[in-house]
Every structure is written in C-alpha cells, then in structure tokens.
Amino acid sequence: MSTKLILSFSLCLMVLSCSAQIWPWQKGQGSRPHQGHQQFQHQCDIQRLTASEPSRRVRSEAGVAEIWDQDTPEFRCAGFVAVRVVIQPGGLLLPSYSNAPYITFVEQGRGVQGVVVPGCPETFQSESEFEYPQSQRDQPSRQSESEEFSRGDQRTRQSESEEFSRGDQHQKIFRIRDGDVIPSPAGVVQWTHNNGDNDLISITLYDANSFQNQLDENVRNFFLAGQSKQSREDRRSQRQTREEGSDRQSRESQDDEALLEANILSGFEDEILQEIFRNVDQETISKLRGENDQRGFIVQARDLKLRVPEEYEEELQRERGDRKRGGSGRSNGLEQAFCNLKFKQNVNRPSRADVFNPRAGRINTVNSNNLPILEFIQLSAQHVVLYKNAILGPRWNLNAHSALYVTRGEGRVQVVGDEGRSVFDDNVQRGQILVVPQGFAVVLKAGNEGLEWVELKNDDNAITSPIAGKTSVLRAIPVEVLANSYDISTKEAFRLKNGRQEVEVFRPFQSRDEKERERFSIV
C-alpha cells in the first residue's frame, strides 16, 4: 500500500514538473521580474499627461496598423505599447507571436480568431475540400519506382494520403465580435480573419515590463508568414518615392522597426527549409520565405472557409471534456490545466455588469476570476459606459497602471498626481488613449452624448479604490476622523461621508426643476 502511495506521489510531482517546464506562465514561475520594473522606475515622475492618438500608420494589402508613440513619459512609466489594427472584410492578420504578453479589445466588427498553444492537441477538424493527387496516391508498383524512392519515402506518401482522407486538423478557433477581450501570453501564436461585411477594428495593449519579456523594453512581433525584410525595405522605398513631397504621408508610411518585424522564415536558407519541409517544391519554399511578397502583414484571404463552432457548441465540448477527465478518460495534466482555458470574454453585455446604475451607467470587468488565463499574463480589462452627464470617480488603481481607450462619445477627464497637482484636465474623444499611472486619482464626466471606454490594466486582478460613494474610502473612515482631517464639524463630515449612496457610477446633479420634470415624466 505504501509503495503505491509513493509511486502515485512521484507521478504527480513528475506531471507538475513537466507542466511547469512546458508552460512557465505562472506568476514568477521559472522567471524573474524584468529589469524594466527597476531600470525605468525614475521615468514615472509624471508632470503632465496627454490624451493621444496614433502617431504612425503601417499599411498592408487588406488593412492598416496604427501605433501610438511609446516614447512619452506616461507610456514609458507604464511600459505600455498600444496598437490599433483595422482589418478589411476578407482580410487575414497573419500568424505571429510576441516577446511580451498582450490583451486585445474588439471595438468593431466580427471575425474568427485562431490560437496555437504549444504542447496542446489539435482538437478541431474540418472536412477536406481537396484531394491527394491520384497519381501519387495510387501509383503502380514498379521496379524503377523502388529505385527512385526509398521505403521510407513510400511510407511517408502513404501517411500523407491517410492524412488527406481524414481532413484538416488544427487547434481551436472561435468567433469574435465587438466587446470581446482576447488575451495572449508571450510566444503564443494568434491570427485573425475578418469574415464579416465591415471593418474589424481592435485595440491591443502590450505589457513590455512583464516578467515574460526577457529582452528589453521594446515589443517585437515575430511573424510566421508575410514579407521578408528585403521585400519590406523595397516596399518602403517604393512608397517613399511615390509619396515624395508630402511630409505627412511620408511619416504615416514609416514602419516601426521593433514592433512590426518581417517574416522570421525569411532568414533561413533554402536548403535548410527544403530539408525540414519535405515534399514541397522550390516555389513553395520561396513563398515560405516571403520572397517578392509585397502584401504586408494583413493580406486578402482567398477561398478561406472555416468551420467555426457556435458558442453553445464550445461550451458543450468543454463540458464533455470535463466529464471525460472526471471519469476514466486519460489526461496529461497540461491539457486539463491549460489547453481548455477560454481565450475570450465579452465585456459589452449589460446583463453581466458588475456595477449598474440605471440613471448613470455600468461597469463590466474581466479579470482572472472570470477569465483564468489572465492570471498567467497579469493583465485585465474594464469596460465603462456613462450616460449623458454621468460621472465616474474619483478613484485610483491600487496595483496597476491603466490605459483608457475611448470607444464612443466624449467627456471631461481630470487626473491628479502624488503632488496634489492636476496632471490632466481636458476633454477626450473617440480613438484617444489616456494612460493613468498607479495611484493617480481620476474622475470622468460624460458629455451630452455619453462616454464609453475600455481600461486595459497590467494586473490580472486590478483593484480600484473610489473616494466617494457607498463603497468608498471615505465611507469606511469614522466621522470624527473625517471632521478632524478636514477641520469641519461632525455634521458636515457625516454629510460628506453619506452624501452619495451609489457605487462608483454617479448620476449627474439635478436641480429642483429637473427633478420635478423627471418625476412627472415617470408618472
């Protein structure tokens, strides 16, 4: 009996150890904090914040990437890199991975997302719409053939024929739509296809200071397809020649060297690729290397028909997998722990709001509690909707920097830093990003058209502390302490403490006449 227990315990340790080596994404697991957290700490001496728009544009065949200037005090302090990607209908954002984790918010449109997780099985299968060449599948047995091909080559062709007959197998793909939050750890390959009728627009925030980034403060995307470095330089040269005389267009056509690199396969020699990818011709090898490819990293897909399960089918498949692992089915530990994690969560559903005020607005939060994979990349998001003239805040982040990206409307924002001085007091509008450092207090007031934004934060369970309202810090302090702190009467301190019964999202102030009109309109 004791021997069985020892063997079982040893097996558990072995599985956990292997899983940690294959998937070192836990907080601090097999990694160290990036030097950027210490090296660039002095850059958080913020004197003034700016609500900014993209400063560079990189065009491709079927879309464009718009990149924010990361060389500003607030972006350097937070270690953020922000990119907005617009994919035209039918466009395909080529497969790539990054040296830093990131989180993406889908602002507009619908599409299909693919995720390739190392070590996970190919659980999706589609019906094959192509046939293995008859001449290669049913070749007659001849003596000359045995002289030309070895038995190993014949077995390879037989295996290929069987693979063709079974259809295409791949890792999970899923539908995406506006309001979806999609995370990605460093090194995980993702691709996006716009199968809708409108542009697919998303905003992505990279965390360059993450412990997963072992390089430097620059974020790099490594593409598995697309143009080579030479093709990219030729393409840029052609554009500069074509746009000569227009300084603005010339600036828009400049590429961000660190963020949008070329096809990594373009650096390998033909002989190596031919040895690795057997039974493909020289033309295919050239296309793998992206030779003479001028399409960019968002290409127009042709005849791309993907069988994507509906959401209820995904849930059913996940439940079946859970029941199987709970019974006598086999599981390798890695699959159970990581391969079945969800890679998206929608934050644009009022029914799932964490905070809701029918007269002011709502807050939807996605963190590691409802999307567990965020624990491994230490990022989270919050979607806020304010109605006409409603107010959010003042509040601060306890443990995270945040980037506020405005998705609709306009409004006024005030941010106050540690010196008790306003570092931002201005209006914001759709398409702008405002970075708010940790601990800085912020208040937002919507305009006449309302205000919506998404906050992307560099902690998987970012916590905010409101200064006013039912759950505020002032509400938790005794009245006598408030009276002595502000040198006011206990009566005024009580009013200060209990003046707002709402939670974080406040309806606008109403005069007596406005209240009367509202009361009669309800009746």
What does it look like?
- There is one protein chain.
- This protein is of the alpha+beta class.
- Among the domains are: 46-125 and 167-233 and 256-319 and 338-346, Jelly Rolls; 347-469 and 504-521, Jelly Rolls, CATH 2.60.120.
- The chain is built from 16 helices and 26 strands.
- Strands 17, 18, 19, 20, 21, 22, 23, 24, 25 and 26 form a ten-stranded antiparallel beta sheet that branches. A seven-stranded antiparallel beta sheet has the order 1-2-3-12-5-10-16.
- α14 (479-486) crosses α15.
- The longest helix is centred in the N-terminal third of the chain and has 21 residues, at 2-22.
- Mean pLDDT is 80; it is low at 11-25, 28-42, 135-146, 245-255, 327-335 and 519-523.
Topology at a glance:
Blueprint: H1 2-22, H2 36-39, E1 56-60, E2 63-67, H3 73-78, E3 80-87, E4 91-98, E5 102-108, E6 110-116, E7 124-126, H4 134-137, H5 143-148, H6 151-166, E8 168-170, E9 173-177, E10 180-184, E11 189-193, E12 200-207, E13 221-223, H7 229-242, H8 247-252, E14 260-263, H9 270-276, H10 282-288, E15 298-300, H11 311-326, H12 334-339, E16 345-346, E17 355-357, E18 361-366, H13 374-377, E19 380-386, E20 391-397, E21 402-416, E22 422-429, E23 433-436, E24 441-457, E25 464-466, H14 479-486, H15 490-498, E26 505-506, H16 512-522
Parallel strand pairs: 13-14
Antiparallel strand pairs: 1-2, 2-3, 3-12, 4-11, 4-13, 4-15, 5-10, 5-12, 6-9, 6-11, 7-8, 10-16, 17-18, 18-19, 19-24, 20-24, 20-25, 20-26, 21-22, 21-23, 21-24
Helix pairs in contact: 14-15
